[in-house]
Amino acid sequence: MTCQVKICGITNIDDALMACRFGANALGFVFYEKSPRYVTPEIANSIVAKLPPFVTPVALFVDADASVITSVIGGSSRWMIQFHGAETESECLSYQRPYMKALRIKKGDDVSALVDQYPSASAMLLDAYKAGIPGGTGEVFDWSLIPKVLSKPIVLAGGLTPNNVEQAIKQVAPYAVDVSGGVELSKGTKSEPKVREFINGAKCG
Description:
The chain has 205 residues and is α/β, with parallel strands linked by helices. It has a single domain, classed as Aldolase class I (TIM Barrel), CATH 3.20.20.70. 41% of the residues are buried. Strands 1-2-3-4-5-6-7-8 form an 8-stranded parallel beta barrel, surrounded by 4 helices.
């Protein structure tokens, strides 16, 4: 099965449509104000309204207030949610949208047990652990920590680039890969050649 690709940290319509043109399956929008890739609900929903069919917009939150989450997903029925904080399964379920839960993986973690805490998730995103940083570290974690069999589809994140995505797919065989900083010109602005190369590598990996 061809690996799916999520391009995260989208902040403008040009980057969104460019990623779609090269074959992105999903686009991530960051609603965490401390992130340099933060985008307002108004801008994000204006972009989502212009996306082609069959591309999934993903709204990323880190322990956000319910009012913030509803202000975003109320703008479009297309939103999937990515919870990147300490949200419980019941919190994730309460918005009645498909969701994936991010886990920051470090040595010693029982990844299978962590995944099994979210049986209602559509997928689990595995990212690198770095103390005090909820995501977007740009660092690769030890892929050998990921069990070969898990109860949910895996979205692999953390330090992926056009240079290592094919190796990541060969080693981990994830359902999807997620990239943000690895395809940027600067924080929040994507590089067209890098996006094209990353998606091509992922689809052929």
